[in-house]
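Q&A FORM
Asked by: J.P.
Topic: structure of hydroxymethylpyrimidine kinase

PROVIDED:
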Amino acid sequence: MKDYPIVLSIAGSDPSGGAGIQADIKAISACGGYAAAAITAVTVQNTAGVSEVEYLRPELVAAQIDAVMSDLAVDAVKIGMTGTVPIVEAIASQLAVHPVLYVVTDPVMVSTSKDSLTLPEAVDALCSRIFPRSHLVTPNIDEASRLAGFRIRSVEDMDRAAALLRDRYGCAFLVKGGDLPAASGQSVPDIVSQSTDVLCDLDGLVHITSERVLTNNLHGTGCTLSSSIAAFLGAGHPLREAVQTAVAYVHNAIVAAAPLRIGHGHGPLRHFYR
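REPLIED BY: S.T.
REPLY: Here is the structure written out as tokens.
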């Protein structure tokens, strides 16, 4: 087991600190890792939403990745917001030059506030250029529905989507179930007491359940989960153990953040609750 894994986050910047690179650095650090970062985009956002996105030149994204990976012994990479096809290509090219055993990809398509963060054509590039190089991909319900080609309305649908995507892209998939009640059309009083995430790896399906927390402070949840998984993988934990430990960490960070009032919209998690 590695005591202080080095994890590179490749993602967009959130000036409010709740998501993106900022959330990744907090999560990686809280989970015992050393966080490095390559920025793909500068966003203008806060807890209320995203108002503007400026994607960086792909050459600059590639240069950041090369600068880190040619110097630091990176144990794991987390890929978040990519945005454009040229940026996806730049990331894929750098991963070919600097192979890493563990790549965790969060296919960020929209923000917590439902603002679009990735161009449609970039999703196709992500599937063909990044997923095959990934150890794990972590879509939410909407993203998994889009990738699988059918609307996910139940845990059984999550199982089917996770297995289909694993077989298609040759890597493990973690379909996150936090948004399942909304996707299934349930009203708030009908929301189940537990949230179920579905992991499909080479050994099959695993359901990971946690108590659902009714809170508005969920900004950056996906970023936090994927980067914490990367930290645990980089430390040497097996995939299933890394995912289960990360899910528990995120759950506790949500619980700790529930009473906080940071911003007027979707507040952040409390990454350093322990």
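FOLLOW-UP: Residues 6-137+193-257 form a domain with the UDP-N-acetylmuramoyl-L-alanine:D-glutamate ligase fold (CATH 3.40.1190.20).
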